[in-house]
Amino acid sequence: MNRTEFIIATAIVLFVAFILGWFSHWLVNRFMRVAQSEMGELDKMAQQLHEAEEERDQAVAYYQQRESEASNQQAQTEAELRAAMDGLRDARQETEELRAYVERISKG
Q1: Could you tell me the residue ranges of all domains in the chain?
Q2: 53-to-12, 44, 64 alpha-carbon distances in Å
Q3: What is the structure's pLDDT at 70?
Q4: Collapsed DSSP state (helix, strand, coil) of residue 67
Q5: Which of 1, 42, 67, 82 is the one with CA 20 to 30 A from 99?
Q6: Residue 100 binned pLDDT confidence (cut-offs 50, 70, 90)
Q7: pLDDT greater than 80 at residue 82
């Protein structure tokens, strides 16, 4: 291989390397590039996701509060029921005592 052939071969190799580099760069940019409208869409979706998470957190807090209130109300109702049942038991006992007293007086 003489000097001219060597220079031409080197030029061809460098040109092919340049073309391959340029094509690789174009492919990477083509697939990785995100348009401004897409960025706006992504920002909008991120904002909507953030708002949805906040609403979810508020809903969870609301339902936890409602559950706590319902539990408290249930405990209070159960306490009132126990008190009413105790009062009814006492009233029945007193009624039985009065009935027995009336029967003793009417017999005696």
Answers
A1: 1-34, 41-108
A2: 59, 14, 16
A3: 96
A4: helix
A5: 82
A6: very high
A7: yes
